[in-house]
């Protein structure tokens, strides 16, 4: 909590410093400077967009993006004003001009969102304010003054980031990485303690502590991911900080999966201790030795710089007279034919995988990273992949229409303050889907909060500019907390800052009450325009899209199941596709959770939460499946000979096929059922078909009945058969004892993953059934019946 207070206070102070620099320069600065910065409000907006919660790298990137945005907008605007002139526009033509200019800015898919926001804000100021000024607007100097105004905001942001000392993304990542390593090491210690526990009480207590540490790890990973891009802009500090390979967020994420696997293994152990006391003592020595190696590797990974990664020292080498791996030397203590011991095997498998990940000290290609730094992805025009994308075109069209309508309606309401409606839309543009109603709501609330606060402070310190400026400091700190809250987020916090700064940070603009009221009304106009356009162009709600995405994700899950095999092709491609689909599903679920229901059915967040939890587990389990199959291939040379494997591994292949058939039946049924619009529509389609073909339904339904439930006896029988057959394969393989033990561990891990996958797929089936039942409360959901009817209708369509 102390860290959060300090972070928010520091962020608020830096924003306050930036705005104070702008206020001092525009109010007390030399006359020449004040003549160039003709619209200080946009200087404040630019500074707030760049410096809010920014590190030095973020600010350097923001300066570059502001320059890019200025070149993108000012030069074309000068040409437009030179040939047409600001006095020849009307309300309609100026709105159309802003809309067309915004398309050029928004359409390039690889442009950074900050550059788009600054550029769109400049477009509004140049064209709308130029139109309002009329004959007083100089066709060439007005765009130059807007560029100078932007430059003032950029300069203030850069200076505020340096004072009193720079906030470095590299240093933030280094500190968070160290904390993450300590977290992983502590979780490892707790999980090993649970694994070796001599009673259930100790094990349950350790697992509870591990769950709390897991939550902390998630919070640590988020800023590390966030600052990865910022680090590229801190060339000198990055070299000084000497981040090791664990400073890479992907490397840290790679450590998370084995830890989650160990937690999953422990949650499936029925009782403790897992072995007899004499056996545990022997196994404990090997486990503790491996634990110490992993911790030392993690610490060395943080300590050594990228340049030293190729000379990464070995950790705790074994004595020459000892077996190379004490854990594998004691693995025969666990009975490989008892399926109750599979969690123990899987725990050791994940422990060794964590050891491998902790010693994997290879960094991304530095030459490639250097090229990325020299040509950052923020300014390239991805014409083939971006502009020709219908999704990108629709996004650009949405932004253009929103801006055009807000310009037109804002000018109609108040020509003098008409630019506020479109400026609010411009500086809050989003490049991806967002919860439209929630974002619009918090923008409006933030504007009201900031404006009211500004008016109150102005009334108290009406004749004291310094007093008004000092009132901004608590406002900046407060809005820093708002930006980190779930209720308001970044959109509400930034709107509140701008609302207060515009009133308190300027002079010579008349009554603050009138300005505040005008800004609130204009904000409502801009927000309403955005909502209206979003509803028209994106009529599909997030809840509907989540349903479509669920069906698509289940299809990819089916693809992963079909890809499982001991022989190529492997399932890496399908696994990557499944992971991306699950991430997209999570985004849509998060959006649907905060969108209002209105007259629609409420979003079934509980069912989707269960589905997402199981799908996330399946992603991990398939990754472990892929890794265990790789381990089997590395330790059983018989796999390299297709003829020998076809003879020895025939029973194993049949067991895997049986599992695939059992699992795919339920997943396929879930795909069919989740793709339905409603059960009533299905009933009508079946009735239409029956009218034309008599009793065709009963015959077809009898033929198309599917096995969609997994009975416990069948699952246990399949698991025991698989274990029996892989033990036979290992005995017949003729490998060395070390190879056999490694193969046994990989096979046991694979068996555990198959068993866990069946459980998760059953959970997916239950959650899908519950979802369909809640969406169709008046109907009885029977998967067999529904699946048969779908089969009848689909066959009729064909």
TrEMBL record:
Keywords: Cell membrane, Membrane, Signal, Transmembrane, Transmembrane helix
InterPro entries given in the database record: Memb_transporter_dom
Leader sequence segment: 1-18
Localization (cell): Cell membrane
GO CC terms: plasma membrane
Topology with respect to the bilayer: Multi-pass membrane protein
Regions crossing the membrane: 37-56, 63-83, 89-107, 119-138, 144-165, 448-481, 487-504, 516-537
Domain Integral membrane bound transporter positions: 406-533
Protein name: Integral membrane bound transporter domain-containing protein
Organism this protein belongs to: Cucumis sativus
């Amino acid at each position: 909590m102390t860290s959060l207070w300090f972070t928010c206070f520091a962020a608020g102070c830096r924003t306050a410093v930036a705005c104070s620099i702008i206020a001092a320069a525009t109010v007390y600065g030399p006359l020449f400077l004040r003549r160039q910065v003709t619209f200080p409000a946009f200087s404040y907006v630019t500074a707030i967009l760049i410096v809010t919660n920014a590190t030095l790298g973020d600010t350097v990137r923001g300066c570059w993006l502001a320059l890019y945005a200025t070149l993108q907008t000012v030069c074309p605007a000068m040409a437009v004003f030179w040939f047409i002139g600001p006095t020849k526009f009307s309300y309609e033509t100026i709105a159309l001009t802003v809309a067309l200019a915004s398309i050029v800015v928004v359409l390039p898919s690889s442009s950074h969102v900050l550059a788009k926001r600054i550029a769109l804000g400049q477009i509004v100021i140049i064209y709308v304010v130029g139109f309002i000024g009329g004959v007083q607007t100089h066709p060439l100097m007005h765009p130059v003054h807007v560029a100078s105004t932007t430059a003032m905001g950029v300069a203030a942001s850069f200076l505020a980031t340096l004072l009193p000392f720079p906030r470095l993304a590299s240093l933030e990542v280094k500190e968070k990485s160290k904390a993450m390593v300590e977290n992983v090491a502590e979780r490892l210690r707790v999980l090993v303690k649970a694994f070796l526990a001599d009673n259930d009480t100790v094990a349950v207590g350790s697992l509870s502590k591990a769950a709390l540490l897991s939550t902390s790890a998630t919070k640590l990973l988020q800023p590390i991911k966030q600052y990865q891009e910022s680090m590229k802009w801190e060339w000198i500090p990055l070299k000084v900080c000497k981040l090791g390979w664990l400073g890479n967020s992907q490397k840290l994420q790679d450590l998370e999966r084995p830890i989650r696997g160990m937690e999953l293994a422990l949650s499936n152990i029925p009782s403790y201790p897992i072995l007899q006391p004499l056996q545990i003592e022997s196994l404990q020595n090997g486990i503790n030795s491996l634990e110490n190696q992993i911790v030392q590797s993690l610490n060395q990974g943080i300590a050594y710089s990228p340049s030293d990664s190729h000379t990464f020292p070995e950790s705790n080498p074994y004595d020459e007279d000892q077996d190379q791996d004490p854990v594998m030397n004691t693995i025969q203590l666990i009975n490989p034919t008892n399926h109750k011991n599979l969690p123990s095997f899987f725990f050791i498998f994940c422990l060794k995988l964590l050891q491998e990940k902790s010693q994997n000290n290879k960094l991304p290609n530095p030459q490639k990273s250097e090229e990325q730094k020299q040509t950052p992805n923020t300014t390239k025009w991805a014409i083939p992949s971006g502009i020709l994308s219908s999704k990108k075109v629709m996004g650009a069209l949405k932004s253009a229409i929103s801006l055009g309508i807000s310009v037109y309606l804002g000018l109609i309401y108040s020509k003098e303050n008409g630019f506020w409606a479109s400026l609010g839309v411009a500086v809050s543009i989003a490049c991806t889907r967002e919860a439209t109603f929630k974002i619009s709501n918090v923008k409006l609330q933030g504007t009201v909060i900031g404006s009211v606060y500004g008016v109150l402070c102005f009334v108290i310190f009406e004749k004291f500019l310094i007093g008004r400026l000092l009132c901004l400091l608590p406002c900046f700190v407060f809005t820093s907390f708002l930006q980190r809250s779930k209720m308001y987020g970044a959109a509400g916090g930034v709107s509140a800052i701008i609302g207060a700064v515009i009133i308190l940070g300027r002079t010579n603009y008349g009554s603050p009450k009138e300005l505040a009221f005008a800004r609130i009304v204009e904000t409502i106009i801009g927000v309403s325009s955005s909502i209206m356009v979003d509803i028209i162009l994106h009529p599909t709600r997030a809840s509907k899209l989540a349903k479509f995405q669920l069906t698509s994700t289940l299809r990819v899950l089916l693809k992963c199941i079909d890809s499982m095999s001991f022989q190529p092709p492997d399932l890496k491609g399908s696994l990557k596709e499944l992971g991306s689909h699950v991430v997209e599903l999570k985004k849509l679920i998060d959006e649907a959770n905060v969108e209002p229901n209105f007259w629609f059915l409420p979003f079934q967040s509980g069912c989707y939460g269960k589905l997402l939890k199981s799908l996330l587990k399946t992603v991990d389990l398939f990754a472990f499946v892929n890794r265990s199959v790789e381990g089997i291939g590395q330790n059983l040379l018989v796999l390299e000979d297709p003829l020998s494997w076809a003879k020895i591994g025939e029973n194993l292949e049949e067991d895997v096929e049986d599992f695939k058939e059992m699992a795919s039946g339920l997943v396929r049924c879930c795909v069919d059922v989740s793709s339905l619009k409603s059960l009533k529509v299905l009933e009508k389609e079946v009735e239409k078909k029956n009218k034309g073909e008599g009793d065709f339904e009963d015959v077809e339904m009898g033929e198309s009945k599917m096995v969609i439930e997994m009975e416990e006896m069948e699952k246990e029988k399949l698991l025991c058969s698989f274990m029996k057959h892989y033990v036979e394969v290992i005995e017949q393989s003729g490998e060395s004892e070390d190879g056999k033990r490694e193969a046994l561990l990989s096979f046991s891990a694979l068996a555990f993953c198959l068993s866990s996958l069946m459980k998760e797929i059953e959970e997916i089936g239950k959650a899908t059934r519950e979802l369909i039942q809640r969406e169709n409360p008046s109907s009885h959901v029977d998967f067999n019946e529904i699946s048969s009817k779908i089969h009848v209708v689909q066959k009729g369509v064909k």
